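Problem 3 from the worked examples.
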Amino acid sequence: MDELVTTVLGPLAPEALGITDGHNHLWIEPVASADPEAPVLNDEAAIRQELQQYRAAGGGTIVDCQPGGCGRNGRYLAQLSHDSGVHVVACTGFHLRRYYPPHPMLWQMTAEAASDLFVGELLESLYETQDTVTPVRAGFLKIAGEASFEQTPRHLLEAAAAACRATGCAIEMHTEKGLAVEAFLEFFLAQQVDPQRLVFCHVDKRPDFGFHEAIAQTGAMLEYDTFYRTKYDPETAVWPLLEKMIAAGLETQIVLATDMAYSHMWQTMGGQPGLAAFVTQIRSRLAKMELAAATVNNLTGGNIARRLAVPHKKESHS
């Protein structure tokens, strides 16, 4: 079987994804959640235009990290991908509790039922596209950890682990500034999840090289996305950390991203730096660091593409 990445418009070879922002948000519908500051991204024309700018700059793919029930809409993701020419990989899974309406379905489910839901969205269709001519499938699991393991819903962690084992699909995990990664990793290893299927997100907010080195050496991947966030001082944190990880030979364990969930980061909505800056600023800076071309390509797409790729049966044309 071929190893392919499931995009919203169908499976693709990992090398076809090109330059890939490994953790972002393209569409977030308003939700009556417990968080009054929950982000909303639903200006279709502005999002389409920004995706076209990303494509014109050389961008190939966006990995969308908004799970169902808290603002995801696979119909719009598919339409935006079709209109812009940018590949989009959608997700199933769960976000932080505060981004859901009161009494969210997932929190009432058993681990087995939640796993069945995740597997269904990975193998058949997102629930919001089940009645469409061409259903959209999720390409990975996005889950969210709270500041501690104990605060995170264990039954949903178990569900994600079971879905990962059943499908081979990767898990991207939101962390609260890199906290409790060691505990989450220990849990997933005990659940027989291959560490090669794990991506821990936002961990550059905890720029301790020893911590990053130890996690990377287990086979898990680390996602960095504070390049535009001045409060995390990227010039003294993420950029030096990235250089140390590359020097240690761990560049294949890193995925770069921008995590632009808020409209003030989108140029077409009056903000900065915009989707295209992943190419024009981050990738361009890497290209000036005297790195091997393969290293630049891996950091800005190749690494995450290989994590997202899973075996697909060849289609019969007889």
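Problem 4, a separate protein:
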Amino acid sequence: MIRLLNVSMMPPGVGQPVLRNLTLTVPQGEFRWLLGPSGAGKSSLLRLLTLETRPSAGQMDLLGVSVSQASRATLRNLRRRIGFVPQDYRLIGEWTVFDNVALPLRLRGASERDTRREAFAVLEWLDVAHLADKRPGTLSGGEQQRAAIARALIGRPEVLLADEPTNALEDAQARRLLATFQELVEMGTTVIVATHNEALVREAPAASIVLQDGTLAGADTQDGNAARRSDRA
């Protein structure tokens, strides 16, 4: 579960908060769109939820952990339970797709046998196993996007956060990705997707978190089954 109570965020050197007094709850195993115009605070909220930074004020609980009070060791362990798909992919260019995807498990000390099994399982799930030996610079934007998604999924996260994950994808690929998110939701993963793609949101109606100028402009709490219908949109 994700719970924010009067959360604000003011980065160092910034004269005013980029997020102000956010209060919201996302139950475990549900889907949310994260919506709002450019500059509304979507990326800042994702930075909070990926534990890149902590709230300047307010209370944030993530997967049962009070983030504001947590030790560095606790936050390090908590990050392992969160998957993130960045807008700019952040793939290491000198490495193969396989090595990029395998990185989270290797950092945790997983055996090479388990790492290979898990990495190829998620690559096959996303239909990019044939790219395992390729380097990111040789791939299309959509292929790089799917490699970044595979890396986020390999640790079987309890929370998955995605920043504009369909930008580089064709329509059919975007729908397939939504079906993948649906499968994760059905397995109990909380999924939050930031997007400007209004057509995609219309195709896959689900509860939404709407930001405007760093504040919560709306929280559409449709029934939880809305996310579960996204793969049929």
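Solution to problem 4. Helices lie at 42-49, 72-79, 97-107, 112-125, 141-153, 171-186, 198-203, 225-228. The first strand starts at residue 2 and ends at 9.
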